[in-house]
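Board work, copied verbatim: Class I SAM-dependent methyltransferase
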Amino acid sequence: MSNILLSSRKNTLDNNGVLEQNKKFWDNTADKWFGVTALPELGCLIPSEEDLHLFGDVSGKKVLEIGCGSGHSLKYLGDHNASELWGLDMSTQQIENATRYLKDCGYEAHLFNSPMEVNPGLPMGYFDIVYSIYAIGWTTDLQKTFNLIASYLEKGGTFIFSWDHPVMRCMEIEEDNLVVKSSYYDENLFTFEKFGFDISLSKRKISTYINALSKAGFFIEEMIEETDKQTLESESKVEQKYHSAFNAKMFPLSFVFKARKL
Ligand SMILES: C[S@@+](CC[C@H](N)C(=O)[O-])C[C@H]1O[C@@H](n2cnc3c(N)ncnc32)[C@H](O)[C@@H]1O
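↓ predict structure ↓
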């Protein structure tokens, strides 16, 4: 991803407008994201699930992915013997791609074409694990989304999610220096263009995620804020983009939370 702060502007849409706009983006670009940001990867230049084992032994577990994209993370958990694969995604094209991909891999999954801000008919108190790899941050209503996720989990169930670290949204490269360009405290919804489509995204503080998890009835077991060893040990040059090794050596590009429903 290029340095989108340079080209971003203030969002002018309401939440429904944002969802409609973002759905258009994901429907039209789904094929470009086939298999991208999927387990065992948890985020950008951070340790993977193979290193961290956050999911533990998933055999016999009922799992639900929020923002399941092309279905590659569900397939990974199926390969590790999860007993039921469920997914939700607001993009019709992503759901079509995931349905085809999982079927080709021999898996039967329950997939819902819906925004995460509503329950499209998912069972309550049912899942052992609800997770989201690089999708939660797209929500237009974080608290509502976390409340819904808590309602899908059985008591003691696990919620794991990863997303862009907000610090990276404050930084830019200027004349080969990494500089703080915007306030960490500024929680804005900004719009930018990618692949010819407008798309809107919220920047939220880490404490906003923590407080929303707590309010939804979660106990935080672990938070990952790390760059992977290989990147830390690599030679790196300044690059005019967020997801560079140079940046990742200075601060985490992604974070992961593992929480338990109380
Ligand atoms: C980076 S992809 C996730 C890929 C996925 N982890 C995989 O294994 O393929 C993000 C996904 O979030 C979905 N998404 C974005 N906003 C959403 C929303 N409000 N509700 C549900 N899904 C959303 C997009 O359609 C996209 O498929």
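The first helix runs from residue 15 to 29.
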